[in-house]
Give the backbone structure.
Amino acid sequence: MYTRVRELREQKGISQLSLGLRVGCSQNTISKIEKGEVDPRAGILLEMARYFGVSVDYLLGVSNIKTYMELNMGAGKQSAIGLIYREKFDRLSLESQKVVGQVIDRLDEMEKKL
């Protein structure tokens, strides 16, 4: 797992400190995770997965499929428009991703009432 966290962080071009701030832990904790000295708490693991746009299974090394979208693409389930929106979503900050999620949840609730 530790190599995947480091690789994803480096791909994003962010420091350990920046990642720690985004996922709710210290730079020291990120360093220890990347060295394999500690395993992240579940909450931090989930925040990392959201931030990097990957599955928890990928972070843990359980799967080589980075995202559920890739899994769906293998099954022919991902639309072209879904890919476009996913790419845009992945570029958003974690805070903006949370807002988008809240908007989608609200729209889903409204659709169910129609």
User: Anything to note?
Assistant: The CA atoms of residues 23 and 47 lie 5 Å apart. The chain has eight helices and no strands. The helical segments are 2-12, 16-23, 27-35, 42-52, 56-60, 68-74, 80-91, 94-113.
